[in-house]
Amino acid sequence: MRAGIALGSNLGERLANLCRARAEILRIPGVSLPSRSSSIYETEPVGSEPGAGLFFNAVIEVGYAGLPQSLLDALQAIESSMGRPSKRPRNSPRPIDLDILYAGNLVLSNDEIVIPHPRLHVRRFVLAPLAEIRPDLILPGHEETIQQMLTALRDGGGVVCADAAAQAAWREQA
């Protein structure tokens, strides 16, 4: 199945954090190429404490042969190895944030994992990079494409492509 993963960082070397996380994701057992990577977007934090730094956000899509819970466990291990504590205030600044956006046509909801991501359709910082790589994707339980969801958002909300140097470094590391 194809799985979409959101990457975000607003602590430390944001670009290096995203590059390292993407490289580690591609080494997860069961992850296969080809992969797709969006550009990097610089975004305002949503629901964070006052003074929280801007995020770098991106979305990648990979092939994955395994259970979604196994993918989530691997992503959480990457977050932990990069210094993100497992217990923290919601939306607090973090060196890396990795979320499964979708996993094929799977719909899953339990205490550990919800797929598709329950707030994906209202988050410009996720929809903008996802629309870049999968504009015509229709998620299970939705009727609109990713591009239509993005176009329908009313907030203009603090999401811009990162500068050319960051984009070049991101592409070079791919």
Describe this entry's structure for a reader.
It is a single chain. This protein has five helices and eight strands; from the N terminus they run βαβββαβββααβα. Strands 1, 2, 3, 4, 5 and 8 form a six-stranded antiparallel sheet that branches. It has a two-stranded antiparallel ribbon with strand order 6-7. A hairpin with a 4-residue loop joins strand 6 and strand 7. It is globular, with a radius of gyration of 15 Å.
Which value, in Å, is the CA radius of gyration? 15 Å
The major sheet is characterized as: 6 strands, antiparallel
Count of distinct strands: 8
Which percent bin holds the helix content? 25-40%
Q: Assembly state here?
A: single chain
> N- to C-terminal separation?
21 Å
Structural class: alpha+beta
Annotation keywords:
globular, 30% helix, 5 helices, single chain, alpha+beta, six-stranded antiparallel beta sheet, 174 residues, 24% strand
Put the structure in a nutshell.
This protein has 174 residues and is α+β, with helices and mostly antiparallel strands.
How would the blueprint of this fold be written?
Elements: E1 2-9, H1 14-25, E2 31-37, E3 41-43, E4 55-64, H2 68-81, E5 97-103, E6 108-109, E7 114-115, H3 124-133, H4 146-152, E8 159-161, H5 164-173
Antiparallel strand pairs: 1-4, 1-5, 2-4, 3-4, 3-8, 6-7
Helix pairs in contact: 1-5, 3-4
